[in-house]
Design goal:
By secondary structure, this protein is of the alpha+beta class. It has 3 helices and 4 strands, in the order H-H-H-E-E-E-E. Helices cover about 30% and strands about 25% of the residues. The longest helix is centred in the first third of the chain and has 11 residues.
């Protein structure tokens, strides 16, 4: 798949509050939340852009990234139906 998010994956970053939010929402124990998100985005089943954000959907979570700054805004578990 070829899109701006994947083409600029090295620009991906987040704030300290973003790291805390991602770890809390996904119950992550990883040291590097940005690296974890990069790996998830690269293996995502679906990546799409809506408005100013990119959304990367994996089997278990959705990662939201600002389309202009490539800042990871948040990540949430997908609700299991």
């Amino acid at each position: 798949m070829n899109n701006d998010l994947l083409n600029n994956i090295d620009k991906l970053h987040t704030t300290e509050m973003g790291v805390q939010r991602i770890k809390r929402n996904l119950c992550l124990n990883t040291v590097d939340a940005v690296d974890w998100c990069k790996k998830q985005i690269l293996s995502a089943k679906t990546i799409y852009r809506t408005g100013k954000n990119w959304y990367a959907e994996t089997e278990h979570c959705i990662i939201t990234v600002n389309a202009h700054s490539y800042t990871i805004i948040t990540a949430h578990r997908k609700s299991q139906k």
